[in-house]
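Dear U.,

Please find below the material for section 3 of the report. The protein was modelled together with ribulose-5-phosphate; I have listed the sequence and SMILES used, followed by the predicted complex structure.
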Amino acid sequence: MAMSTSDSAIPVEEQAKLVESSKRLAAYQAVKDYLVPTYTRIGIGSGSTVVYVVEAIAALGPGVTSGMTFYPTGAQSEELIEAAGLTLQAINKLPTGQQLDVAFDGADEVDDDLNLIKGGGACLWQEKIVATAAKHFVCVADFRKLSPRLGTSWKKGIPIEVLPMAAPRVLDELKRMGSLNPRVRPGLPGKAGAIVTDNGMWIIDAPFAPLHLPKDSASGVQAGNEDNGVWQVDALADRLIKIPGVAEIGLFYGKNGLEVTAGAQKPVVAYFGMADGTVEKKLAA
Ligand SMILES: O=C(CO)[C@H](O)[C@H](O)COP(=O)(O)O
């Protein structure tokens, strides 16, 4: 039977090692499957799992990577790309009408429909720009991120990037919408005040009850509706993005890359490193 990190029999350091090895497994498999040697433009996301994605790409050597240019989603991934000796380019240098061949990124939670919560590392805005610029958006994660519905295992809330001056009004609106104790994310130890994103914005984390899937026949919830305070993913996302002062939201939703040729927020595939040493692959339906 597959182990989970909540197994109290496993010492904490062992659990941490298990999670790290799961991330690495998923990353190497994703790169093996989706980094086609003829590709030239690659998006690189943010977070601790992406470290292994870059490691796996760098391990292919200059024979494969020298013709490739890598587009970051923030300061951390910029550093990762440079430290690995890969060619860095800002996404605003991607000419109009052109797409990235593929983009790899992590997630905080992935549901059965490949909707994502992202932004645990406060990089969601640039992550969405890079993901939607890619022909193939590939999600890489460990087994803790798999859940049937968003909000089931990731309880910290949906990360929302906001203009600092709008934060109090956005908090008010989120409470009216039923968010349970939304909060401005505090800075890391050593930083007084709120966390400031790579774009000079703040992050609000807005917890909601576990979300319904977009076309959730089991719950009887119709597209675009809310049911006893429980939101459906697309309906909630469409409301959140319209709140004045919201720059971007950490829900990646809507059509996936199999249905549209450009602009998909949902991945075409998600790789999960499992606790038993296997890799589970979920393809967009
Ligand atoms: O969205 C993100 C950063 O904004 C990350 O992809 C997400 O938080 C997952 O991070 P990790 O791989 O460290 O678990």
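For the text of the report, you could mention the following: The chain has a mean pLDDT of 92.

Regards,
Y.
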